[in-house]
Specification:
Elements (H helix, E strand, L loop, with lengths): L4 E10 L2 E11 L4 E5 L6 H9 L3 E9 L2 E2 L5 H7 L1 E4 L11 H6 L9 H7 L1 H5 L10 H14 L4 E5 L7 H17 L3 E5 L3 H7 L2 E6 L2 E7 H5 L2 H7 L4
Parallel strand pairs: 3-8, 3-9, 6-7, 7-8
Antiparallel strand pairs: 1-2, 1-4, 4-5, 9-10
């Protein structure tokens, strides 16, 4: 079986500034990957690059056999890449339901299925995007990504800045997606322990390069090694 995602010798960044250096990774169908590292090492840049929001300097990104270089973000979304950005980027002047349906593509994820997994959105369906809480906006960003019926879901710090009760709710949503859906998931998360507990594989970035690639369980069992990987070199 071919990989869902194959990244080889990737160099990317913003304009002339290179953030990611010679980065390679492969993800099979239904793989779950935690992307870890200190602030500023390239975690968000990696997800943004996969989505087509950065400057691609070299290397290849192949998604389900298709080379993505040069494709705009909306084409990548149509091919089956879903993106939950750190800034959420919901439409404030659209209702919750309109935010969801604007991203709708045919497939297993329907409006009702999104409401089933995120019932708070159903309760707020007529509220405008700027009338709901930060936690609800995060749920909406996840729901909107699912409405595109992705094969690959990129999540950039979905738990950041949220109240503990909302954090637990979103963790359970992510666990359900992993358990019940056929998604391949890439998760950037500041809390290494939480990310490792939710995923099977992990990479740690340092200055735009991969300093660790392997099983999440290995790092969970070795907190000293994990801590050392977060030390600047």
């Amino acid at each position: 079986m071919s990989d869902v995602l194959a990244v080889s010798d990737l160099r990317a960044g913003y304009g002339a500034t290179v953030v990611l250096e010679d980065l390679s990774l492969n993800l099979a169908e239904r793989a779950t990957l935690a992307v870890l590292g200190r602030n500023g090492v390239g975690k968000t840049t990696l997800l943004a690059t996969l989505m087509g929001h950065t400057t691609h300097h070299a290397g290849k990104i192949v998604f389900r056999g298709r080379e993505l270089s040069g494709l705009p973000a909306y084409e990548r979304a149509r091919l089956g890449i879903g993106y939950v950005p750190q800034a959420r980027e919901i439409f404030p002047s659209l209702s919750v339901e309109e935010n969801l349906t604007v991203a709708e593509r045919p497939g297993r994820w329907t409006l009702q299925r999104v409401y089933d997994i995120l019932p708070r959105l159903a309760e707020r369906r007529s509220h405008m995007g700027n009338q709901i809480s930060g936690g609800e906006q995060q749920m909406l960003a996840i729901g909107r990504a699912l409405m595109g019926n992705p094969t690959l879901l990129l999540m950039d710090e979905p738990l950041e800045g949220l109240a503990p009760i909302i954090v637990e709710s979103i963790i359970e949503v992510v666990r359900r997606l992993i358990r019940e859906d056929s998604l391949t998931l890439v998760l950037v998360e500041q809390s290494a322990k939480r990310a490792l507990e939710m995923t099977e594989q992990a990479i740690v970035l340092d200055r735009g390069r991969i300093s660790y690639a392997g099983a999440s369980a290995v790092l969970l069992k070795d907190p000293e090694r994990l801590a050392n990987l977060f030390v600047a070199h």
